Amino acid sequence: MEFVQQNMIWVALALVSGGMLLWPMLSGGSSEDLTPAQATLLMNREDALVLDVRETGEWTSGHIPGARHITLAQLEKRMSEIEKLKGHPVIICCASGNRSSSACGRLKRGGFEKVFNLAGGISAWREASLPLTTKS
């Protein structure tokens, strides 16, 4: 007990970092992250759906060809549009990977089995020199 009192900051830091590690598992938001190269393979080999959850302005500035656009805010309301794809792989992307991680949890709770997060989002896709389109 004396150790805890003398090292309160370190104990708090350990608790917070442990909680951050456990949060994805406890919230049901854990998903497998894919690199852009892995995502491309999944798209080509298993006809994975790419779901872009960015805002409309971000979407129109460039998105992955063939991607479907449903903003994160609309995902719950529009889930029925992709219900028939529950058995297919779904790759979710956003600008950097944060919003898509949240969307992965929502889809998993909605019964989707094969949900993947594009690690680094569209930024990582651009850095890998992969194509983007502005066509709807």
Strand order of the largest sheet: 1-5-4-2-3
Named CATH topology of the largest domain: Oxidized Rhodanese, domain 1
Low-confidence residue ranges: none
Q: What structural class do helix, strand and pairing data support?
A: alpha/beta
Instruction: Give the CATH class of the largest domain.
Output: Alpha Beta
* CATH architectural category of the largest domain: 3-Layer(aba) Sandwich
Most strands sheet: 5 strands, parallel
Proportion in helices: 40-55%
- The count of helical stretches stands at 7
Strand content: 5-15%
- State Rg: 18 Å
CATH superfamily of the largest domain: Rhodanese-like domain
The string of secondary-structure elements, in order, is HHEHEHEHEHEH
The overall strand count is 5
Number of domains: 2
Provide a quick synopsis of the model:
The protein has helices at residues 2-6, 8-27, 36-46, 56-60, 75-78, 98-109, 121-127, and strands at 32-34, 49-52, 68-69, 90-93, 115-118. It has 136 residues and is an alpha/beta fold.
Name some characteristics of this structure.
136 residues; alpha/beta; Oxidized Rhodanese, domain 1; 5 strands; 47% helix; 12% strand; elongated
Structure commentary:
A 5-stranded parallel beta sheet has the order 1-5-4-2-3. It is built from 7 helices and 5 strands; from the N terminus they run ααβαβαβαβαβα. It is elongated, with a radius of gyration of 18 Å. It has helices spanning about 1-5, 10-25, 35-45, 55-60, 75-80, 100-110, 120-125, and strands at about 30-35, 50, 70, 90-95, 115-120. The longest helix is centred in the first third of the chain and has 20 residues, at about 10-25. The protein has 2 domains: about 1-30; about 30-125, Oxidized Rhodanese, domain 1 (3-Layer(aba) Sandwich). α4 (about 55-60) links the parallel β2 (about 50) and β3. It has about 140 residues and is an alpha/beta fold.
